[in-house]
TrEMBL record:
Keywords: ATP-binding, Nucleotide-binding, Transport
SMART domains associated with the record: AAA
Single GO MF descriptor: ATP binding
Domain spans labelled ABC transporter: 6-236
Protein's name in the database: Putative spermidine/putrescine transport system ATP-binding protein
Top-rank lineage group of the source organism: Bacteria
Length: 337
């Protein structure tokens, strides 16, 4: 198993004079599902297009399975693509949609049948072979698009926000489905999303991107538990992020005393890490909502708003009243600026 199955070396990607991705270095391990995660415009699609061969790099190299493909045409790279819009052929049956690429390769008919049937079964669509795409649900169409790519046996499958057109429930269902198909086929997948929960749920590793650069790379657990920067922390649900100055936490609004010595320039707490109901600090409840297992408070403080999740058993503090809280050291995440 190659640790550098896909290797991006000093890759710079531009549109005219605008550099979208400066000097990217990334190794994708053979057989892994790696997610490129980041806000809109951070360079995820641009990076995918370069790997696919749809965008020529300004500089740098792309190696796939030991072969430098930087100057190799898109259709000679062994790459499969699945995008948000499935681009299925509306007049062809599910079977013929999946068989299409194999027919182009002039493969013998028996092999086309075998591969197509196996591909359709892999994505759980056995029995739907004769349907037209319009006779299938959004989720089924997306699975069909997946099968169509898989039967080509690509070295790498690139998926660019493939689930973003699906409704919430289907999106969750397809997450599990994708993971299952990936483990079953062992195909190396590069998956693009701007949804951190999707990346956390699906990926073996996450590449968090900002302004065309890698902000942090790690396992979902590493990114979730140990975001290194304020940007990463914000993306991973730390909603209370403040600067440290001496003995105080400071924001653009004001400051609050910090109950302990901090060694990092910034500190962050998840809403669930803020202790409510008791503590040395206090603020005014400006919003309060029931969220099943907990209550979500927004507390107006000298630092601005603090978001805090209180266990549902704790006594509810009415809107407009003062609430005691603490930003405990044990739940603080230290961040570099
Ligand atoms: N065809 C294009 N021409 C010029 N600039 C582009 C083009 N496509 C993308 N960009 C710019 O490149 C940057 C990265 O875009 P993109 O890779 O599409 O981001 P993402 O997929 O992460 O949302 C953005 O600043 C975007 O405006
Ligand atoms: Mg994009």
């Amino acid at each position: 198993m190659s640790e550098k199955y896909v290797s991006l070396r000093n890759l710079t990607l531009s549109y005219g004079k605008t550099v979208a991705v400066p000097n990217l270095n990334l190794d994708v391990v053979e057989g892994e599902l790696i997610a490129l995660l980041g806000p809109s415009g951070c360079g995820k699609t641009t990076t995918m297009r370069a790997i696919a061969g749809l965008l020529t790099p300004t500089s740098g190299t792309i190696v796939i399975d030991g072969r430098d493909v930087t100057r190799v045409a898109a259709n000679k790279r062994g790459i499969g693509l699945v995008f948000q819009s499935y681009a299925l052929f509306p007049h062809l049956s599910a079977f013929e949609n999946v068989a299409f690429g194999l027919r182009l390769q002039k493969m013998p008919e028996t092999e086309i049948r075998q591969r197509t049937e196996a591909g359709i079964a892999t994505v759980g669509l056995a029995g739907f072979e004769k349907r037209k795409p319009a006779e299938m649900s959004g989720g089924q169409q997306q699975r069909l698009a997946l099968a169509r790519s898989l039967v080509m046996e690509p070295k790498v499958l690139l998926l660019d926000e493939p689930l973003s057109n699906l409704d919430a429930r289907l999106r969750l269902e397809m997450r599990t489905e994708l993971q299952r198909v990936q483990k079953k086929t062992g195909v190396t997948m590069v998956f693009v999303t701007h949804d951190q929960s999707e990346a956390l749920a699906l990926a073996d590793r996450i590449v968090l991107m900002k302004d065309g650069k890698i902000e942090q790379l790690g396992t979902p657990h590493q990114l979730y538990a140990e975001p290194a920067t304020a940007f990463a922390a914000e993306f991973m649900g730390f909603e209370n992020i403040f600067r440290v100055q001496g003995e105080n936490l400071v924001s653009d609004f004001g400051q609050l005393p910090l109950g302990f010595k901090a060694t990092s320039p910034m500190l962050a707490w998840r809403p669930s890490g803020v202790q409510v109901g008791q503590g040395p600090l206090s603020g005014r409840v400006s919003a309060s909502s029931f969220a099943g297992g907990h209550r979500e408070y927004v507390i107006d403080t000298a630092l601005g708003q603090i978001k805090a999740d209180a266990p549902i058993e704790t006594l509810e503090v009415p809107l407009g009243e003062n609430i005691a809280f603490d930003l405990p050291k044990s739940n603080a995440r230290q961040l570099s600026a």
